[in-house]
Specification:
The chain has 819 residues and is of the alpha+beta class. The protein is built from 26 helices and 32 strands. Strand 24 (527-531), helix 16 (537-551) and strand 25 form a beta-alpha-beta unit. Bound molecules: ligand ANZ and zinc ion (ZN). Its EC number is 6.1.1.4.
């Protein structure tokens, strides 16, 4: 037996795959398609174990579907723009483009070494003009449709490096590089109107219920955050203007004792002009990073503005405060504060001595007397609310909303937590936004004939400020409309834009448009695989883009193309010593070392065997060894067998039938663990058990047993092929099999072979259970009677009696009637 040497074997098999271009996707409409996609990587430099897991899962699915006769598309590419390239380039004094391309070359080699069955002819990197030009094209279409707009929005500003920082570049409120305290700044940025699709993004989740994990669906639901409520206007006491608030609890309107507005609210800014202390408070709020999480956790603080409004129903004067927990970006940037029924308002009112008025009490309870311990946020009946007293609070919501509407001071509204998507990045390494700012014409899109706006790539970065800002060749341009001097936009797009439509471009990577008719044929993706960390942003943006592509006419509006990903599998993390494997923890295992030592098949098999795909996987050197030894055993067994399996004889001995049953039970178990649920660990365990059984067949066995052994080995090669494709292929050849294993039909369990070949009969004497006896399943009544009567253990029950009659119920029981 030649030794199992994965390195040479795997590279030979891979060379053959490559020469034959075996995994090129053919979507010729003659068969059923299957689009299998794993989330494409960011070219960070090295594959990590999470990649290997993701891609091994995807490839097992793709290979299985191929053997099921589907036309499979499984592409791979690079999510190539983004901040790390700039940071690394700054560190090493390289151009980000060079750093990125070098990494891609290296990582491509690593993926190829894993033997993943990708259609490499479709590979692309998103940092190439051939790709991002279509993004620019779409941007202009969306601008024309009013789905793109500019507005002032807050960013983190590093006063030393003179640059905008991404949230992840702010560490404890300071710039990651300069260490300077970060400020908030308002600048004009570009937004995509994702909120126009909020309702469809929400209702679409219902159609995904079958194929997506519930956890991801509920995260998206929360992210979209649909709230029904009311907009209520509080007139300013001066009589000039109103303060609008959004509330989900109009029923508590009579318990509102003050208003709280965001520090960026125009009224706050106006009031601060004459009040230095208020201005100082607003200034302090500006130094807190802009994320919602920080706003939630910080200590609640406020400051009175001196402004008074009138209650819309009672006309009572209420003070207006600035509060640091009110977000400018949500609702109206202002809250009617009801301390008795909202915990944040309660704490705030306590801290600043503002009045607390109870207006809802739980059904069947008295109005609380004395001091409240906390806000009551539940339902109940109204009190202290004039004509609304006694109403249940749900009814009161409708009645009070109607009353303010009748007074011209409000209306029923729906509010979303979802914000429009700010895609402007004041960074260099990204897709240039195809707009030109003209002092006369305003914002003008780059004409289609001038696309793409190519990102210059020759810079060697030596400071974090975008070099586009200092490159007049890039930004000094004539206005496309009036021809006068104008300035090209120097912001680039958020890299989430590239990853929002790459799945569609893979269907037609060479199309002379953003997409062509191949997209409709291949989409939606039948199986998408990736990390749950993308549950919200990436997966929501991609769903949004799919709808945009449909609405600009690039995908059919036939109801089948509304969603990009039919099924989603979110793989668990790779853990080591109980914690996440990560660079920062210094507990990573380099997949390259694993592959160099054991080969790709062992790496893949280990990863798929160690845990079901959705669960966390605990790294174990012993389990890697175990997978390796298993492949050795299979190798040896097949080589020792060393022949093309002969056809099965017409009749099999009981022993051969038993073995054949194990073979087909294994086929059955593997198949049922592959279909739709992808329990690869259980599938692999079944193959391992079969291998153990096959190893027990003696070398000098009967011809029929050897024939069944051959059938078992052949089945093992087929069943192993999605998990350990290289060795499976070598075994396939060793067994003299014709044709490509990658396209060989997946085996079907033979129902007859599955049938147990013996049955256990119950033996009664005069109707009383006495013994049990195993007989061949197909034995006839006559032979059963003979066997039973001769069965030694039965004799003691028949002692002294003579047998009158034997009743045989085949397959179940035998009753011996004796006197
Ligand atoms: C009065 C009230 C009384 C409220 C009560 C709640 C309980 P969701 O469900 O998330 O939509 N709110 C409105 N705009 C806000 C902003 N910009 N920043 C912070 N909070 C804001 O939450 C809606 C509720 O959050 C609104 O209903 C408002 O407080 C507050 F017993 O209004 B409520
Ligand atoms: Zn102009």
């Amino acid at each position: 037996t030649p030794p199992y040497s994965p390195q040479t074997l795997e590279s030979e098999v891979q060379r053959r795959w490559q020469e034959k271009q075996l995994f090129r996707a053919v979507g010729d409409a003659s068969g059923e398609k299957f689009y299998c996609l794993s989330m494409f990587p960011y070219p960070s430099g090295q594959l990590h174990m999470g990649h290997v897991r993701n891609y091994s899962i995807g490839d097992a699915i793709a290979r299985y579907q191929r053997m099921r006769g589907r036309q499979v598309l499984q592409p791979m590419g690079w999510d190539a723009f983004g901040l790390p390239a700039e940071n690394a380039a700054l560190k090493h004094g390289l151009a980000p483009a060079q750093w990125t391309l070098d990494n891609i070359a290296h990582m491509r080699g690593q993926l190829q070494r894993l033997g993943l069955s990708y259609d490499w002819s479709r590979e692309f990197a998103t940092c190439t003009p051939e790709y991002y030009r279509w993004e620019q094209w779409l941007f202009v279409r969306l601008w024309e449709k009013g789905l793109v707009y500019q507005k002032l929005s807050t960013v983190n500003w590093d006063p030393v490096d003179q640059t905008v920082l991404a949230n992840e570049q702010v560490v404890d409120g300071r710039g990651w590089r300069s260490g300077a305290a970060v400020e908030r700044r308002e600048i004009r940025q570009w937004f995509l109107r994702i909120t126009a699709y909020a309702d469809e993004l929400l209702s679409g989740l219902e159609h995904l219920a079958e194929g997506w994990p519930e956890q991801v669906l509920s995260m998206q639901r929360n992210w979209i955050g649909r709230s029904e409520g009311a907009e209520i206007r509080f007139p300013l006491a001066t009589g000039e203007g109103v303060v609008k608030v959004f509330t989900t609890r109009p029923d508590t309107l009579l318990g509102a004792t003050y208003l709280a507005i965001a520090p960026e609210h125009p009224l706050a800014l106006a009031a601060a002009r004459t009040q230095p202390e208020l201005a100082a408070f607003l200034e302090r709020c500006r130094h807190v990073a802009v994320s919602e999480a920080t706003v939630e956790t910080q200590e609640k603080e406020g400051y009175p503005t001196g402004i008074t409004v009138r209650h819309p129903l009672t006309g009572q004067p209420l003070p207006v405060w600035v509060a640091n927990f009110v977000l400018m970006g949500y609702g109206e940037g202002a809250v009617m504060s009801v301390p008795a029924h909202d915990q944040r308002d309660f704490e705030f009112a306590r801290k600043y001595g503002l009045p607390i008025q109870v207006v809802v009490v739980p059904e069947g309870e008295e109005i609380p007397s004395g001091i409240l311990e906390q806000a009551y946020t539940g339902s109940g009946r109204l009190v202290h609310s004039g004509i609304y007293d006694g109403l249940d609070n749900e009814t009161a919501k409708a009645r009070i909303t109607a009353a303010v509407a009748a007074a011209g001071l409000g209306r029923k509204t729906v509010n979303y937590r979802l914000r429009d998507w700010g895609i402007s990045r004041q960074r260099y390494w990204g897709t240039p936004i195809p707009m030109i700012h003209c002092p006369r014409c305003g914002a003008v899109p780059v004409p289609e004939k001038d696309l793409p706006v190519v990102l210059p790539t020759h810079y060697h970065l030596d400071n974090p400020r975008s070099p586009l800002l200092d490159d007049p060749e890039f930004h000094q341009v004539p206005c496309p409309q009036c021809g006068g001097g104008a300035r090209r936009e120097t912001d680039t797009m958020d890299t989430f834009v590239e990853s929002s439509w790459y799945y569609a471009r893979f269907t037609c990577p060479d199309a002379a448009a953003m997409l062509d008719e191949r997209a409709a044929r291949w989409l939606p993706v039948d199986q998408y695989i990736g990390g749950v960390e993308h549950a919200v942003l990436h997966l929501l943006y991609a769903r949004f883009f799919n709808k945009l592509l449909r609405d600009v006419g690039l995908l059919p509006a036939d109801g089948r193309h509304d969603e990009p990903f039919r099924r989603l599998l979110t793989q668990g993390m790779v853990l080591k010593d109980g914690g996440k494997m990560s660079k920062s923890k210094g507990n990573t295992v380099d997949p390259q070392g694993l592959i160099d030592r054991y080969g790709a098949d062992t790496a893949r098999l280990f990863i798929l065997f160690a845990a079901p795909p959705e669960q966390h996987l605990e790294w174990s050197d012993a389990a890697v060894e175990g997978a390796y030894r298993f492949l050795h055993r299979v190798w040896r067994l097949v080589h020792e067998y060393g022949q093309t399996p002969p056809p099965l004889p017409a009749t099999l001995s009981a022993e051969a039938r038993d073995l054949r049953r194990l073979v087909h039970q294994c086929i059955d178990r593997v198949s049922s663990n592959m279909d739709g649920r992808y329990h690869f660990n259980a599938a692999i365990a079944a193959i391992m058990e079969l291998n153990n059984a096959l190893m027990k067949v003696p070398g000098e066995a009967q011809a029929d047993l050897r024939a069944v052994l051959g059938e078992g080995l052949r089945s093992m090669a087929l069943l192993l092929s999605p998990f350990a494709p290289h060795i499976a292929e070598a075994l396939w050849q060793r067994l003299g099999q014709e044709g490509e294993l990658s396209f060989a039909p997946w085996p079907n369990a033979d129902p007859e072979a599955l049938q147990s070949s013996t049955v256990t009969l119950v033996i009664q004497v005069n109707g009383k259970l006495r013994e049990r006896l195993e007989v061949p399943a197909d034995a006839d009544a006559g032979s059963i009677e003979a066997v039973v009567l001769a069965y030694p253990p039965l004799q003691k029950h028949l002692a002294g009696l003579s047998v009158r009659k034997v009743v045989v119920v085949p397959g179940r029981l035998v009753n011996v009637v004796a006197q």
